[in-house]
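PROTEIN FOLDING TASK:
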Amino acid sequence: MTHSQYWSLLESEQVADCRVFTVKRNLSRNEGRKKGTEFSFYVIKPYNWINIIPITPDGNVVMVKQFRHGIRELTLEVPGGMVDPGEEPAVAAAREMLEETGYVADEIIHLGTNHPNPALQDNVCDSYVAVNARKIQEPVFDTTEDIEIVLKPLAEIPEMIRTGEIMHALVITAFHMLGLHKK
C-alpha cells in the first residue's frame, strides 16, 4: 500500500501561528482497515532544524547549557536552531555555532538527517560536526537566549548520555550519527 492508501487528506487549515511554528488541523479519511472513518489530526509545522557538534583541536566539544521552557530546566546541548527560509542547512549550522558560542571551524561535515517527531511534525533536523573549532568572538545571543558555554571532552560524551547528563534526544541522535560517521 502507498501512503495515500492509508489516509486521504480531505482538508487542511492553519489553526495557530506561534512565531517559530504553525499548527494545522488536517481532516483525513481512513482508506485502510477502518475505511471511511474520518478524524482530525493536528500537525505542528516548525522550520527545519540543525545542530552541530563543534570539536576543538584538543578534543573538546563546545556545548551550551540553556534553560528549556518545555521542561523548565537547564539542558546540556550542542549549538543548534532553525534553518531560516531559503538558507542552506550547513550555512545555518555555521551561523548558529558562531552566534551561540563564538566559534568557527575549518570544516563542517554533514552527519545525517532525521525526523524529530513524525507523529506531530513535518520538519527535519540535519546534524553536523565542526572540525577544529576555535573561538573567534564572543557569542551573539537572540533576545530569548541565555546560554552558558561549556567545554566537555569528546571521550566523556557516551558516559554523559548514559547517566542522563545529556538528555536532549536530538543531541543524542547527533552524537550517535557522529559515532557512525567515524566507523
Remarks:
- Residues 3-46 form one domain.
- The chain is about 20% helix and 45% strand.
- The chain has two domains: 3-46, 49-182.
- The longest helix spans residues 169-182.
